[in-house]
Design brief:
heterodimer; A: alpha+beta; Methane Monooxygenase Hydroxylase, Chain G, domain 1; eight-stranded mixed sheet; B: mainly alpha; 2 domains; two-stranded antiparallel ribbon; two-stranded antiparallel sheet; binds flavin-adenine dinucleotide; binds iron/sulfur cluster
């Protein structure tokens, strides 16, 4: 381990076949699948498995298409169009089929809701109940769960394959080290600490750890999805599908899903939402659909939420409902590092949604399926290769753990805010241009160098140091990819290159920390693999 | 953000400390947890959901604390709303709080359709009214957002 906190308890040493990092839906499905395949599984989450991450605070509606007729073909064709050449129909079919087959098997842990016709509705789940169910299912499958135990860095064997991870049990002030035959990264998307509901834990730690180990990422240019909410808190968003919007002069705005009127208006000044179109039935049932939506309004003393306009904000989602993440190179969600798998929002979702956000239902079907596949793949690999728990390994952490230069106090809040000032604002991240991206990259590179060279932290403080470094590193990769893609495609729109260029209908790979590189993917890589 | 724990209600189980995803809370010296790192609070209300005594009050603003009076909050009827509306624990047997999440999709679709129709109608009307003026279309089309 990089540092031993003076006077703290003895570090915890754990051995397992499979280590799962993360505690959202992807991590839980991965843990369940690996344990059911007979592997000894340890699952470590930064927070608590049940409340952490965007699944727990959300209500994921899974991609749900019946095998009857040509419904699936139609659903896939529709998504291929909005994928703008970057999605893969084989993967889409796989996640639709797996979700259809597996989700109902959760019925002994989750009470699915029943519609007005008396039919059980399997695809729509409420986050806290879903995660509570997955936690129980994981425990029953034999998964060992460590809550409040963020992973800080990966361990590699001399042959470059993954050997485990180091982390800290932040409530016990105890460091831990897990040696495992395979590792699944399911630490969620990289949310840049932009305030999106449930995303404070999702700082892109998995991305940073994987980058340090030499992994490749893909689709990081598609990291500019935003979520509407009252200015003072990111809440659930169902009611906004009925909203009307006004500027400060009371002029109504022509906001459509496929124009940028709202974004432009928010750059120009305050914008207000009016919910008076919400039908009576919705008003009555909302607390049982999304129990959290009205709660903050009530506590703000806003009792006439449906009658009076209130100020809104777009909260940045980073890669969460963007589409990028760790590059997947095999049909069990293998990354480019041997023994390292990626699932859920940590992985690239371009395979299923290409250049368009998969928020509306593909993402959770992906999180479920990639969890199951990576868990099974990791279990099989660990069982065939063994844990190799006694061999010499190298810890990969850089910024915050092993500074390259002289250790100096680093004002992490200032560094974080400098990076956020480049990656969060709509005028920089939605309305992109080469000039703006280059300017931002200058700031982000300086921020990275400062953390890499000087920051050193221990214990719970190391968690914050690593989170800061993760935000900076993922923001930098995102803009590096956005600069390299000098065209407009899907959610990536360049003011200085408004056309879609046919020769750029390829995924864009990105990697590196000191020297960041990009390269178009040569060809589809997901050949069947057998472990 | 996390505001306070009603001392009379708290039984000291420390469940909230365990479940807070951002590690805001810490066991307190008098058996009642304290907000040790409130600046990390993501205002997710999860601690309230898991507190069976309805002893926790989280303020609505994710950017700043808005201090409240403990006695007033205890009497306000606001405590425990999330747990009750979610139909957890003792509320599970009350059909009034049954999980209605299946209505989410239909309402989003209906709302989205209605909003698009309304805006398109207004754009068409505006275009008719200003047929002779050369005002451009406000905003640009975007893809995929
Ligand atoms: C508001 C909102 C609404 C959405 N609605 C839908 C929808 O209707 N349909 C749909 O398909 N998708 C939807 N999505 C997307 C969907 O919720 C996600 O794709 C899915 O929940 C991702 O699951 P996950 O397990 O990858 O991530 P998460 O659930 O975010 O879990 C990530 C976990 O990683 C942990 N973690 C982070 N860093 C570390 C570390 N260093 N060490 C250990 N653990 C760590 C976190 O604590 C967390 O538990 C929505 C997303 C949002 C934000
Ligand atoms: S969960 Fe509730 S009762 Fe238990 S310690 Fe926390 S505030 Fe007190
Ligand atoms: S609201 Fe969420 S983040 Fe804040 S203290 Fe409660 S559980 Fe923790």
């Amino acid at each position: 381990m990089a540092q031993t906190s003076a006077g703290g308890p003895e570090p915890l040493r754990i051995e397992a076949d499979v280590l799962v990092a993360g505690g959202g839906m992807a991590a839980c499905w991965a843990g369940i699948s690996a344990a059911r395949a007979g592997a000894k599984v340890v699952l470590v989450d930064k927070g608590y498995v049940g409340t952490s991450g965007v699944t727990a605070t959300g209500g994921p509606g899974h991609w749900w298409v019946s095998p009857e007729g040509d419904a699936r073909k139609q659903a896939i064709d529709k998504r291929l169009l909005t994928g703008y050449g970057l999605a893969d129909p084989t993967w889409m079919e796989r996640i639709i089929e797996t979700t259809w087959r597996v989700l109902p098997t959760l019925a002994s842990y989750y009470q699915f809701s029943v519609n007005d016709k008396g039919e059980t509705v399997y695809n729509a789940l409420r986050g806290p109940e879903y995660l509570r169910a997955l936690r129980n299912a994981a425990v029953d499958a034999g998964v060992t769960i460590l809550d409040q135990s963020p992973v800080l860095e990966l361990l590699l064997h001399d042959d470059g394959s993954v050997a485990g991870a180091n982390g800290v049990q932040r409530q016990q002030h105890r460091e831990y080290s897990v040696r495992a035959g395979a590792v699944v990264l399911a630490t969620g998307g990289a949310g840049f600490l932009g305030g999106l509901l449930g995303s404070s834990t999702n700082t892109g730690d998995g991305h940073l750890m994987a980058l340090e180990a030499g992994a490749e990422l893909s689709g990081m240019e598609f990291s500019n999805q935003y979520s509407i909410s009252p200015r003072w808190n990111s809440t659930r968003t169902l009611i906004y599908s009925w909203a009307r919007y006004f500027d400060a002069d009371g002029k109504e705005l022509d906001v459509l899903p496929d124009n940028d009127v709202l974004e432009r208006a928010l750059i120009a000044g305050p914008v207000f939402a009016l919910l008076n179109e919400c039908p009576a039935g919705l008003r009555k049932t909302l607390p049982q659909i999304q129990p959290m939506t009205l709660l903050p309004f009530v506590r703000k003393g806003i009792t006439d939420v449906y009658e009076k306009p209130f100020e809104v904000k777009l909260f940045a989602e980073g890669t969460i409902r963007g589409t990028g993440g760790l590059r997947i190179v095999g049909d069990q969600c293998e990354t480019t590092i041997a023994g390292l798998y990626a699932a859920g929002d940590t992985a690239t979702r371009e395979l299923i949604v290409g250049a368009t956000s998969g928020g509306g239902s593909p993402n959770s079907a992906w999180a479920l399926t990639s969890g199951l596949l990576s868990g099974a793949g990791a279990a099989a690999l660990a069982q065939s290769r063994g844990r190799r728990a006694d061999s010499k390994v190298r810890a990969q952490g850089t910024a915050g753990l092993r500074p390259r230069g002289s250790v100096k106090p680093v004002d992490r809040r200032r560094v974080l805010e400098a990076a956020q000032n480049e990656i969060l604002p709509l005028d920089k991240n939605v309305f992109r241009s080469g000039r703006k991206l280059r300017d931002s990259l200058g700031v982000l590179e300086a921020a990275w160098r400062e953390l890499r060279d000087h920051d050193l932290a221990q214990g719970a403080d190391a968690v914050i140091a690593r989170e800061t470094a993760s935000v900076v590193a993922t923001a930098r990769l995102s803009y590096t990819a956005a600069l390299a893609r000098d065209e407009s495609r899907g959610m990536h729109q360049r003011e200085d290159a408004p056309e879609q260029k046919p020769e750029q209908a390829r995924r864009l790979l990105v990697g590196g920390l000191d020297e960041v590189w990009t390269r178009p993917e040569a060809q589809a890589q997901w050949k069947p693999t057998h472990v | 953000m996390f505001e306070l724990i009603i001392r009379d209600r708290c039984n000291g189980c420390n469940r909230c400390v365990e479940v807070c995803p951002t590690n805001v809370l810490e066991p307190g010296p008098e058996g009642i947890p304290v907000g040790a790192r409130v600046e990390q609070c993501q205002t997710c209300f999860m601690c309230e959901l898991y507190c069976k005594e309805d002893a926790i009050y989280v303020g609505p603003d994710r950017d700043k604390r808005e201090p409240v009076n403990e006695a007033q909050i205890a009497a306000s009827g606001l405590l425990g709303q999330y747990r009750r509306d979610s139909g957890w624990d003792e509320w599970a047997s009350n059909p009034q709080y049954d999980n209605q999440i299946w209505q989410l999709g239909p309402y989003i679709q209906a709302g989205g359709k209605r909003s698009v129709e309304r805006v398109k109608l207004r754009i068409a009307e505006q275009a008719k009214r200003s047929e002779t003026s050369d005002q451009g279309v406000p905003g640009q089309p975007k893809q995929g957002l």
